[in-house]
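hi! just following up on the protien thing from before. the input was this:
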Amino acid sequence: MPARFRRSPSWRRRGQWFDGPIALSGAIANGRAIRAARMLGADFAYIGSAFIATAEANAVEGYKQMITASAAEDIVYSNLFTGVHGNYLKPSIVAAGMDPENLPTSDPSKMSFGTDASGERAKPKAWKEIWGSGQGVGSVAKILPAAELIARFKKEYDEAVDPPL
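and the predicted 3d structure came back as:
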């Protein structure tokens, strides 16, 4: 690999503002994206959605299936469910009886993760009924054992080498 693409890019050497490990996340769902993260200077890639849809993941089967059936356009960015903006799967919002195109904005100072004054939960609960996922969800085609997914990532990572010039 040419020296300009090695692990420690100039922005890390010059700044000296942070000496710990650097993770890169967001739409990383294959080995090529992992290699790109490393070439950009990240110490590791943080992968979320692809691992939710593994056989071993402690997620309900419907969540795993929804990830494999969804694409980037199925992501809704909202702060309604937790008070903090996050990405949620549009079909899970619809299944909870809400209109994903017309969600109100949350007031974080009035957030309650329990019940309302009547003792009832006022809205669906994030991660239990409203499922999160990242923008790379469209790259997750099927539920796999984690070992098979990791082996695929390794193969794709190893194959992701630029051809000689």
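The CA atoms of residues 22 and 43 lie 5 Å apart.
DSSP finds six helices and four strands in the chain.
cheers
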